[in-house]
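Hi everyone, sorry if this is the wrong subforum. Our group has a chain we'd like a structural model of before ordering constructs, and none of us has done structure prediction before. Sequence below.
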Amino acid sequence: MGDAAIRVMVVDDHPMWRDAVERDLIEADFDVVAVAASGAEALARFPAARPQVVVLDLQIPEPNGVQVTTEVVAIDPSSRVLILSASGEQADVLAAVKAGATGYLVKSASREELIRAVHRVAQGDTVFTPGLAGLVLGEYRRLSEGPPSDPDTPRLTERETEVLKMVAKGMSYKQIAERLFLSHRTVQNHVQNTLRKLQMHNRVELTRYAIEQGLDQDE
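Answer:
Right subforum, don't worry. Here is the predicted structure as tokens:
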């Protein structure tokens, strides 16, 4: 949490919701450096604002939240995207993760959950509403059981799978590091490698595949 306030940008097209999130973050000592009501506004303001964390709704006027995530990560790879969406649909979750988001909360999350998530994402943690990380894990499980002849299928190591299962349970990187006797940085690298493997795969094909396989049936 450090001395300097974490710089945050809030993107949502609902004024009352956007104002409420901004107010909550300011009261929690975050530095809200910009707000935007559309994807176009977000991308126009992002370069000058240089937020460390972008709190982003998926359903915003064009470009949508997934496209904004892709652009933001391309402009500044150190910037973190936390999706705050009304949707917990698996296709939306996977599309956001594949675009580069490192956090995904549904809007029913409490103020405390939001504040904790912004802090954790800023520190490099991956944060999901409980259950959503299980979708990502299920995606890998199905990919790893795919045709062995497909050289493009990303494979997870046993340790990466172990770490992702703990993320799916809502454990922080610090807790995972202590449990597995690893450094915080090593745990972070495992998760980043895992997300990178997912992003490397053809995104459209993968999302279609995930929907066909019915990821909602994962535990």
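For your construct planning: The domain at 1-129 is CATH 3.40.50.2300 (Rossmann fold). The first strand starts at residue 7 and ends at 11.
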